[in-house]
Amino acid sequence: MENKYYKTDFEGIVKDPTSGAILNVDNQKLSAYKKQKQMFIDGMKNSERIQKVEQDLEEIKNMLGQLLKRS
């Protein structure tokens, strides 16, 4: 049984008559979305790394301050 999709008013979007699902059949937009999502995830990871480095630097500064007070 061949599954034909109904066209919609939106480019790259079709409707499956069997399940009623709305499908995106535009592979270029899907690839662009996946790339954008990965860039966002990478940005979040970098943000977390920067935050960790800032916390570590603050701890080091506090330890150095304590060592100088003891001298």
Instruction: Round the mean pLDDT to the nearest integer and report it.
Output: 92
Mind summarizing the main beta sheet? 3 strands, antiparallel
- How many separate domains? 1
User: In percent terms, what proportion of residues is strand?
Assistant: 5-15%
Helix and strand element order? EEEH
Would you report the number of β strands?
3
Number of helices: 1
Low-pLDDT residue intervals, each spanning 5 or more residues = none
Radius of gyration: 26 Å
**Cα shape:** rod-shaped
Helix content: 55-70%
How does this model look, in words?
- With 71 residues, this protein is mainly α.
- The protein has one domain (6-70).
- The protein contains one helix and three strands, in the order βββα.
- It has one helix at residues 27-70, and strands at 6-7, 13-15, 22-24.
- A three-stranded antiparallel β-sheet has the order 1-2-3, with no helix packed on it.
- The mean pLDDT is 92.
Put the structure in a nutshell.
The protein is mainly α and 71 residues long. It is built from one helix and three strands. Helices cover 62% and strands 11% of the residues.
Topology summary:
Layout: E1 6-7, E2 13-15, E3 22-24, H1 27-70
Antiparallel strand pairs: 1-2, 2-3
